[in-house]
């Protein structure tokens, strides 16, 4: 076809052929240019060329598809090969232009995630910010799009999801009759119980905590709940939307009187999506995600918390300057981020230290241990401390990553693993310049990620289209459709043999995990008592143990709240196993040479062997149009096996989490026994985790994992 001749001859360079001209109803140039406002001129030029090439490729594919459909429209017997080609053309035409890049801002409460997002998008108070307490109470996604207005969609729990949480909240508030007064007072002061009371009162009013599950099902919520379970807010200006959005995503004080209708449905909010119109600071195709650091008591919200972390290709671990030196919360978040690299799509991790303008000069000078040069001002002290923190934390973070990830992981090659930022100074610039706040540096990082992904996507798309169009070009008319058949039996035998070899290689790859898995199981069996005790005992005496245990058992071993450290007993007692297998597991799924335990390079070698065989068959068959068909078939093999690689990476999460899910399944009868009240009275005076009903069948779980 004529379109293909022009396409093949030009390659990646712009052309003037009429076939490649933009359609009459093309997007106005001003609108198109506004999509690139977040990029400097050089990057804008590159993006425009990528989009132009992609657009013209789609136009050629669409024209080819229409002509091919027209040529076979009246034919009753369309060859299978033509049907396949038509379906492939349609699939390429409808293929999304670019999957969003999710950048997760992951940090404990009060770390400054919302302030950082506000600075990046150039909207000072867009998301709620407070120096007094927790602010953002749910997952908030911020992106830019083609819309003319600022828009927010507030997604609520479904009716069934809320009923599930309501049942668990009322179970948590139920006290046995055997509790004495001292124990009852301790129970009432427990954080899990306080939060349950607060949620019920917020939604149903005072006294709701004294009602049972059936009574609350009949009760009418104070706030209006839309049947669609989605609340959409729109505004012409950012400030206007911010005011409307604030009551839904801000954590409110528990002693607040006269709550608004928006505040009253806060316990039902699942997550929030915010879309900005044509932002100059955040390019279209990037999603910034404010991820609360501990998960959620509700199962669906907690599941979404994990899935959100896993779909992020970049995770910024947010820690303010006063907490960056460590602590359990910081370590837990770092470990969760590293696990996202192991089980999800995360490729980059960075530590973003916030609030770096906070410095007491006299204290700093007294404790200063670096440099001989005298400090003349607060600004010099802040800049010096920032450099020291970068040097120290970069080394610590890199060592931690080296212990958990393969030595050739891309994240270890990053030049910047630590950023020191100040959102406050970005706006005020009393001490630091705009560049010194490193907000522009983070924006540059975002742009680079998007530009690299767009380039890879367009290259892959054009290459795939090129193979299809080459073959299509040989179909000048129905009479010229190739009737030759491949030597199917020989090719089938070849593929089957290669698959058998690949299966053996896969077994060899996973065999490397056997020894560390066995070692990890031994360590888990030796340490589970200590681990369980550390997780469960949060206050003095046995009351703290049992109060926490009840909340944990309600959720099959998991308790998450917005104010306390996350508890996951299933994950905690398998952590010694993960400590042993992490480097090997990461090595199995890494890219590189087809040696050792790496799986994907062997899939790549399998692909190349099929492509070579296809070329050999083509030469032997004496294809009249062999260059077209060879290119097409070789490209199709890449496309099919490229999908296989994506499938493997998606399954990686399920494989990685099989340890914790298996242990949770083994312990589920124990959790249920406690939930039904059979273990509560029996073991109420014991604070040893071994007295959990059923003996916590860890031994059996570990044996099955082995």
UniProtKB/TrEMBL annotation:
Protein name in the entry: Nuclear GTPase SLIP-GC isoform X3
Which residue stretches, if any, does this entry annotate as coiled coil? none
Q: What Pfam families does UniProt report for this protein, alphabetically?
A: Dynamin_N
CDD domains, per database record: Ras_like_GTPase
- The gene name reads NUGGC
Basic and acidic residues bias locations: 14-23
Note down the stretches annotated as region Disordered.
1-35
Give residue ranges for domain Dynamin N-terminal: 103-323
Q: Which Gene3D superfamilies match?
A: P-loop containing nucleotide triphosphate hydrolases
- SUPFAM superfamilies from the UniProt entry: P-loop containing nucleoside triphosphate hydrolases
Instruction: List the InterPro entries.
Output: Dynamin_N, Nuclear_GTPase_SLIP-GC, P-loop_NTPase
